[in-house]
């Protein structure tokens, strides 16, 4: 099997412009066949632009974007029947019913020779709305209809742009279950999302984008491991009292200076250890901290050690880029 066959999506040094503005600035990543891949990023990072290039809706201005081994723009006619697309704002005809919309879509896709997926509406929980006019659907219900359209023709690769935005928690969970089912049947899924727990739950691998570039890329574990452990505690005293009792602030731990926040109820202290944090580093940091507290007779309230999270990794990307 060649690399191309194992990768459903291959993006190499992709660039995309709107006029003079370069929205995507040389990104590279692959999506393996059968995996769920999440593109995360800040507002305006370039996620939708990237997905639109892969869907064949816009040309790249540099680099290569291949889906199922085909150039996503130049070979879009050959590619179109093999991919499913859930747009951020699909342009439905408001006067058609839900059932008519899906039938229309099936008709448009009929030349694919694939049997449309029966029960797509049932799968997205819209069967009882089949006769309802599209314009009478709620925002979340429209997103479910978007999803039905993306899966109705059993595509090999599905692009989902913010699939659960506007959905209530139950609909979101149902959508996650559908995406998991798609993966089980061997479908490749590339999704964009602002919900980190969605990526954490669904994605085999992910990329974090900011201002047109990929800053983190790998499995959730790989990305989270780049963030060190966090140590935090509170001191129930004023800054003046701390100064008079200790003379200086909390110590540097494992090369990491504390971030000190002054609040009404006291002083909050947070350390971000260098990542990935080795167990002996964490242990030494604790020892240093507890020795400091003991020496100055301080009580560390709500002392907590926690692992880095995807949110920490995300915020670090944004922070480092500033
Ligand atoms: N049609 C357009 N004309 C000009 N600039 C555009 C156009 N579409 C997007 N942009 C700009 O390109 C950048 C990337 O936009 P894009 O929609 O790809 O980001 P995104 O990561 O999907 O953002 P969001 O999470 O907010 O949906 C943004 O700065 C945006 O303002």
Description:
This protein is α/β, with parallel strands linked by helices. It folds into two domains: 223 residues, P-loop containing nucleotide triphosphate hydrolases (Rossmann fold), CATH 3.40.50.300; 77 residues, Alpha-Beta Plaits (2-Layer Sandwich), CATH 3.30.70. The protein is 34% helix and 28% strand. The protein contains twelve helices and 14 strands. The strands form three sheets. A six-stranded mixed sheet has the order 6-7-8-3-9-10, sandwiched between helices. The longest helix has 17 residues. The chain is elongated, with a radius of gyration of 25 Å. The two termini are 43 Å apart. About 2% of the residues have low confidence. Adenosine-5'-triphosphate binds next to strand 2 and helix 2. One of its GO terms (cellular component) is plasma membrane. It comes from Thermostaphylospora chromogena. One of its GO terms (molecular function) is ATP binding. It is a peripheral membrane protein. This is ABC-2 type transport system ATP-binding protein.
Stated plainly, the CATH topology of the largest domain is called: Rossmann fold
What is the β-strand count?
Answer: 14
Q: Can you tell me the CATH superfamily of the largest domain?
A: P-loop containing nucleotide triphosphate hydrolases
Q: Specify the helix fraction band.
A: 25-40%
Radius of gyration: 25 Å
| Average pLDDT | 87
Number of helices: 12
- The side-by-side strand order for the widest beta sheet comes to 6-7-8-3-9-10
Q: Tell me the span between the first and last alpha carbons.
A: 43 Å
Shape: elongated
- Uncertain runs are 111-118
**What small molecules accompany the polymer chains?**
adenosine-5'-triphosphate
Q: Based on the structure given, which CATH architecture of the largest domain is correct? A: 3-Layer(aba) Sandwich
Content of β-strand: 25-35%
Overall tally of domains? 2
CATH class of the largest domain: Alpha Beta
Order of helices and strands: HEEEHEEHEHHHEHEHEEHEHEEHEH
Largest sheet: 6 strands, mixed
Membrane topology: Peripheral membrane protein
InterPro entries: AAA+_ATPase, ABC_transporter-like_ATP-bd, ABC_transporter-like_CS, ABC_transporter_ATP-binding, P-loop_NTPase
Protein name: ABC-2 type transport system ATP-binding protein
GO molecular function, one term: ATP hydrolysis activity
């Amino acid at each position: 099997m060649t690399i191309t066959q194992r990768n459903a999506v291959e993006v190499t040094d992709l660039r995309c412009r709107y006029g003079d503005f370069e929205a995507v600035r040389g990104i590279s990543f692959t999506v393996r066949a059968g995996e769920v891949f999440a593109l995360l990023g800040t507002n305006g990072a370039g996620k939708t632009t990237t997905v639109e290039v892969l869907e064949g809706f816009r040309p790249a201005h540099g680099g290569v974007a291949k889906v199922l081994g085909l150039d996503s723009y130049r070979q879009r006619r050959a590619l179109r029947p093999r991919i499913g697309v859930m747009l951020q704002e699909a342009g439905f005809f408001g006067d058609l019913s839900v059932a008519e919309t899906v039938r229309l879509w099936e008709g448009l896709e009929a030349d694919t020779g694939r049997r449309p997926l029966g029960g797509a509406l049932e799968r997205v929980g819209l069967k009882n709305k089949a006769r309802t006019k599209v314009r009478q659907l709620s925002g979340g219900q429209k997103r479910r209809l978007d999803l039905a359209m993306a899966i109705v023709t059993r595509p090999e690769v599905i692009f989902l742009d913010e699939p659960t935005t506007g959905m209530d928690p139950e609909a979101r969970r149902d959508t996650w279950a559908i995406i998991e089912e798609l993966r089980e049947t061997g479908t490749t899924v590339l999704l964009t999302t602002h919900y980190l727990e969605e990526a954490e739950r669904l994605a085999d691998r992910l990329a974090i984008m900011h201002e047109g570039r990929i800053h983190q890329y790998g499995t959730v574990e790989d990305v989270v491991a780049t963030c060190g452990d966090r140590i935090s505690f509170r001191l129930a005293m004023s800054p003046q009292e701390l100064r008079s009792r200790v003379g200086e602030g909390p110590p540097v731990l494992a090369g990491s200076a504390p971030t000190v926040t002054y609040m009404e109820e006291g002083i909050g202290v947070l350390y971000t250890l260098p990542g990935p944090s080795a167990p002996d580093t964490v242990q030494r940091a604790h020892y240093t901290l507890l020795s400091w507290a003991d020496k100055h007779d301080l009580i560390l309230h709500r002392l907590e050690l926690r692992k880095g999270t995807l949110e920490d990794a995300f915020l670090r990307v944004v922070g480092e880029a500033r």
